[in-house]
Specification:
This protein is α/β, with parallel strands linked by helices. It has two domains: 173 residues, HUPs (Rossmann fold); 88 residues, Pantoate-beta-alanine ligase, C-terminal domain (Pantoate--beta-alanine Ligase, Chain: A,domain 2, 2-Layer Sandwich). The protein contains eleven helices and nine strands. Strands 1-4-3-2-5-6 form a six-stranded parallel β-sheet, sandwiched between helices. A three-stranded antiparallel β-sheet has the order 7-8-9, with helices on one face. α7 crosses α8 and α10 runs antiparallel to α11. The radius of gyration is 19 Å and the shape is globular. The termini are far apart. Bound molecules: pantoate. Pantoate binds next to β2 and α7. Keywords: ATP-binding, Cytoplasm, Ligase, Nucleotide-binding, Pantothenate biosynthesis. Catalyzes the condensation of pantoate with beta-alanine in an ATP-dependent reaction via a pantoyl-adenylate intermediate. One of its GO terms (cellular component) is cytosol.
Length: 279
Amino acid sequence: MVIYKRVSDLQSFLTPYKEANKKIGFVPTMGALHEGHLSLLKAAKQECDIVVASVFVNPTQFNNPSDLEKYPRMPQKDADLLEQNGCDVMFLPEVEDIYPAQYQTLHLDLSPVDEVMEGKYRPGHFDGVVNVVSRLFDIVQPNKAYFGRKDFQQVAVIRAMTKKLNLGVEIIACDTVREEGGLAMSSRNLRLNEAQKKEALVIYQSLIQAKKMAQENSPTTTLAYLIDALGQSTLELEYAEVVNPETLLPLTDEWIDGATACVVAYCGDVRLIDNMELI
Ligand code: PAF
């Protein structure tokens, strides 16, 4: 595996692959890699000729400064994991490589997918995601890019952005990888102690129960159950929604294919996000 920090070095390396029409797969990450990221890498390796993974903790997508400060950083361990799992190129830029002085911030209207849920509770977050992902796509020029379904709304926003800007990158969403017991893998789980990891299982358990309930109840009733189950737990629920998978707008009376329950809850000061397709 080769590691590049500078945009121009990465691009010089990739040019011959592009000229030879090789398929470039891209796995953007913020590091602190876990099995979820490795599953994206695996999918990219299966479908592409060369795989680039980026590790960049993007400051512009953190609306909470202490979340940015506490975000785990372990570039050496990440490099080892990427190498052991067959990544070809690791891109490890600094903030000034991604956002040089002349960088012009993009402001896209991706409504409604960027407005609801995370859009409401983390103002500015998706602007940051859109800017970093479009900038990374511009640098890497991948054919396919891989994202985890755990961040269900992020995938929808990135799809909408790719379409709006006509970037020609195929967005692949990979299934959420879960720890034993069902907790969705996340770099943030590193900040949970053993007791909190057990408490956090209520998210997966209530989503599973909601999926069962959805067979015989309306979206509204299913959501009420979810809110109640999480409300009674030791977690602090930020929001739960049952949404249309395309628009991400809430469903009330009628189910549609792919209807998905989305949850965000705090376990201590760790913000956990998860979702499950119900129908
Ligand atoms: O999902 C993430 O880790 C980040 O939001 C991403 C897509 C790498 C952009 O910084």
